[in-house]
Amino acid sequence: MKSRILILGACGQIGTELTTALRQKYGNHKVIASDIREGDDEMMENGPFEIIDATNYESIENIVIQYEISEVYLMAAMLSATAEKFPAKAWQLNMSSLFNVLNLAKEKKIEKIFWPSSIAVFGPSTPKVNTPQRTVMEPSTVYGISKQAGERWCEYYFNKYGVDVRSIRYPGIISWQTLPGGGTTDYAIDIYHKALKHNKYICFLKSGTTLPMIYMDDAIRATLDLMSASSEKIKIRSSYNLAAISFEPEEITASIQKQLPDFKIEYEPDFRQNIADSWPQSIDDTNARVDWEWKHSYDLDAITEDMLKNLGPKYNS
Ligand code: SER
User: Fold this and answer.
1) Range 174-213+244-315 classified under CATH 3.40.50.11030
2) How far is the CA of 2 from the centre of ligand 1 (A)?
3) Structure confidence by residue, pLDDT tens digits, 43-87
4) Which of 143, 157, 170, 201 is catalytic?
5) CA 172 – ligand 1 centroid, Å
6) Residue 89 in this model has a pLDDT that exceeds 70
7) pLDDT band at 107, cuts 50/70/90?
8) Which end of the chain is more exposed for a tag (fewer CB within 10 A), N or C?
9) pLDDT at 299
10) So where are the chain's domains?
11) Crossing angle for the helix pair 57-67 and 87-106, nearest 10 degrees?
12) What's the gap in Å between 8 CA and the centre of ligand 1?
């Protein structure tokens, strides 16, 4: 039986840690990492790695056949802030990569897909607090439009072709191993680096901008749990709301100040403020908690402690 896993976009913020987690769970040789560029030494040395452009159907198909892949995690995407600068390119990357994997499953060349969606599927007309699973969705960013359309296609492929596709609407993900690129929630990572480096952070969002966030360890666990849950438990085939914590820049600042009392924040909001203002402040993830027993474990202070502990040596603190 085919039983290998392929990760597309393995060198990105989530892909890097997902690769490590899947290799730990299933064995290094069972997990094929891929991206459009080579990864760091750990990624390249610990298991198979292939250069794949996720927008190229044939190059994914070749690797699927060569390694007898059964599951694909599609982590390649252009995030919200970059997508506003390159709308056509973002749409092309985010949608064509998704169709490539959905069609591979439709043709029975793979058995299961993980595809991440985002809180960006919601828009300015969505209720902002405790945003329900099913509600008004009028995303106003290119990234959000691509994720919402993607969700509709996932559900369509499940209903029409029986494709086993599973998805989570990730909140902003905080992590220390690999820097994110081009997201709006990235401030909540950059702030730790700048706290350690300069004891000061100039924030591109305004004070008071509350957004839903999650620590990487929780996000990875959610992903693995969703993918290993039995099929009958997966009642939502578009994408699951997922929540952990919500905070605004003043709160993350206060959490950092518990350990670095002289740390200061200043505000210089830019175009990303509009993106953040269109997103929910908190998420109702009851369906994930009921259907496949999701539960987060990191609160803001636990995240701060782990971030500063792991990033400290990099800045000699
Ligand atoms: N973290 C993403 C971004 O900010 C949202 O999914 O673009």
Assistant:
1) no
2) 33
3) 999 999 999 999 999 999 999 999 999 999 999 999 999 999 999
4) 143
5) 6
6) yes
7) very high
8) N
9) 98
10) 4-171+215-241, 174-213+244-315
11) 40
12) 18
3-state secondary structure the chain: CCCEEEEECCCCHHHHHHHHHHHHHHCHHHEEEEECCCCCHHHHHHCCEEECCCCCHHHHHHHHHHHCEEEEEECCCCCHHHHHHCHHHHHHHHHHHHHHHHHHHHCCCCCEEECCEEHHHCCCCCCCCCECCCCCCCCCCHHHHHHHHHHHHHHHHHHHHCCEEECEEECEEECCCCCCCCCCCCHHHHHHHHHHHHCEEEECCCCCCCEEEEEHHHHHHHHHHHHHCCHHHCCCCCCEECCCEEECHHHHHHHHHCCCCCCEEEECCCCHHHHHHCCCCCECCHHHHHHCCCCCCCCHHHHHHHHHHHHHHHHCC
Q: Which residues line ligand 1 (CB under 6 A)?
A: 79-80, 118-120, 143, 170, 172, 183-185
Q: Using the atom order of ligand 1, give the atom closest to the CA of residue 83.
A: 7
CATH 3.90.180.10 fits 4-171+215-241, yes or no: no
Whether residue 77 contacts residue 89, with contact meaning beta carbons closer than 8 Å, is answered with: no
pLDDT exceeds cutoff 80 at 257:
yes
Give me 240's structure tokens: 């699951």
Burial of 162 (0-12, 13-18, 19+ CB in 10 A): exposed
- In percent, the amount of the chain with pLDDT more than 70 equals 99
User: What confidence tier does 1 reach under pLDDT thresholds 50, 70, 90?
Assistant: low
Is 143 labeled as catalytic in the residue annotation?
Answer: yes
